[in-house]
Amino acid sequence: MVGDAIVAEDLTYRYGQLLAVDHISFKVAEGEILGFLGPNGAGKSTTVKVLTGQLQPKEGKVTVLGIDVAHDPEKVQAQIGVCFEITNLYEKMSAEENLKLFARLFGVPHFDAGALLERVGLEGREHDRVEEYSKGMKQRLMVARALVNQPSILFLDEPTDGLDPASADNIRKVILEERERGATVFLTTHDMMEADKLSDRVGFINQGKIVALDTPHNLKQQYGKRALRAQVAGPDGDLESREIIMDQPETAGAVQELFGREKVVTIHSEEASLEDIFIDITGRGLTE
Amino acid sequence: MSLRRVGILLGKEFRYGSKSFIFIIAIIMPLVLSLVLTLVFGNLFSEKPRLGVSDEGDSRITNLITESDSMVGREYDSPEKLRKAVEDGALDMGIVLPSDFDSLLEQGQIPEITAYVWGESLAKQRIVLRATIDNMIRDVAGQEVPVEIVTTTLGDDESIPWDDRILPIIVLMAIVFGGIMVPATSLVDEKQKRTLSALAITPASLAEIFLSKGLVGVVISTFMGVLILVLNQAFGAQPLLLVGMLALGAVMASAFGIMLGAFIKDITSLFAINKAIGILYYAPAFVYLFPDIPQWVGRIFPTYYIVQPVVEISQQGGTWSDVAPEAFILIGLILVVIGIIGALARRTAQREALA
Questions:
Q1: Is pTM beyond 0.90 here?
Q2: Domain boundary pick from B86, B112, B141
Q3: Do B205 and B336 reside in the same domain of the chain?
Q4: Which of A285, B196, B283, B353 measures 20 to 30 Å from B317, CA to CA?
């Protein structure tokens, strides 16, 4: 039976008077990838900081791997890996030195920095100073650093934000490999495509509250509308659009009527995206 | 607290921190300052002893003095002018020769000459001059110890030589700069570059991180203190006690550096604050430098309890019983600073997470 890697109960965090995380509760199962989506300032990073023991919750309780984070953050931190949103590497050190330093602090025996760097596509550059790296290379090294202790839970805060497609793909590949290994992944992002591709479940956070939490499929089923979009040739030869809502009793008749009465040029099905659903639920976009 | 992790972090500090500008300055500056101050106050202005002579007759010694290459010799036309020159520090020593000085010597008598010594002249200059005068008189008399020199010291007879006065400021510079600035800049730099957040989510605790940075300060500060004392030949008769007091002073400086580093968020603010309060670090040294300032003023400043035991042992032959009161006050101050660091640590962790 799969247990819960993370359990947040009534978790609350305030910056002074500002309620950043507002009494949220959720669970993340072992080996699951949870995408945590929300616009900037929604409370994503604050939630990660509380879950990783960097901040103490003002109210509520967080259990990570069965340990109360507020009471024993060091014990939790020994078993997790964190990739921060902002690059915070030792720039005067090489990639290998960065990884070895953290491996020693985690007490990892027989650590193979070369193999880890190869996984993130930094082989051949392991002895270069990090200050000479591009943004994408630094981000891949950040992910590698989060993996030095083979964490049971991997917290990734906007790991592909602003990266070139190749670097972003490399990081996504590593995330899926980690899931295969059995790690739980808590992925914070405002990239709904990425969350859709990678996550077993996604949670929407808005103004400190979780407004939806389910599999991408279920969310689309619940909140989205599926439709057929067709382009038809009009009487003067101009293209016109037609939309038929799917999963309705009258859908079949409408399709038959479309093909019977009009000259269909193209037709395809459309699914709601997670962003559409987020806007539908919150009335605001993920990139606001 | 894991000593293994402290060791790992300490190794990182020495390996990568030693290339930082502040680390290098912490080593070079006390050495350069020591050299400059010693040259300016100790050697440059008094490399050759300065001897004045007022001759009431026509002694051959006057010619020997003014023609000598081993000292700066000047003749004065009255004993009053000679005395004034010595009082003003223009001469290390001045002698008044009676009118029949050479003939009395030749007759085998023991004439009396008057010598004025500037109170702040270096002891080595006085010795050189006395020996030179002895030799000149022997030359003229052609016999052993023909005269008895009666010495009158002018100015402050209790005056401390410049070498001794300068030493406290150089020692303080060596201990305080390295001890405070190396850990403080290292900590602030990690905060600015957010690497402290990365370390904080490893099993390493903030206490281990602070301790490793503080130890770097203690090591460099103690090493520089010892080096400066060795270079100034001021190690005294109790080397172990001296090193122990230097190390205690280094602990105090480093703890203060960690406190500053935990409190201040960026390098610019650190340097600005350090510049503003820096004079307070060195204030006790000015009391040594200018003995006219009442000595109790120095006791107001915490760094007094760092430098005073060192001065006591190295220059005055002090023992543990002489320096114990200052040592206990210093330990008390260290405990207070460590208490403040403990209170600041939680705030630092919180601020780092919020950054």
A1: no
A2: B141
A3: yes
A4: B283
Helix (H) or strand (E) holding A242: strand A239-245
Tell me: the pLDDT tens digits for A228-241?
A: 888 988 878 788 88
What is the CATH number for B56?
A: 3.40.1710.10
Residues of A in contact with B203 (CB under 8 A): 74, 77-78, 105-107
What single-letter amino acid sits at B171? V
pLDDT number for residue B45: 41
Q: Which residue of A has its CA nearest to B201?
A: A77
Q: Are residues B30 and B75 in the same domain?
A: no
Q: Work out the number of other CB atoms within 10 angstroms of the CB of residue A279.
A: 16
Put simply, the answer to whether A105 touches B197 (Cβ < 8 Å) is no
Residue A262 has pLDDT above 80, yes or no: yes
Answer whether residue B77 is part of any domain.
yes
Q: What is the ipTM of this complex?
A: 0.79
Size of interface A-B (CB pairs under 8 A): 57
> Given this model, what pLDDT does residue B135 score?
79
Contact B202 A77 (CB under 8 A): yes
Domain, as residue range, for B26: 3-42+159-354
Q: Looking at CA atoms only, how far is residue A77 from chain B in angstroms?
A: 6
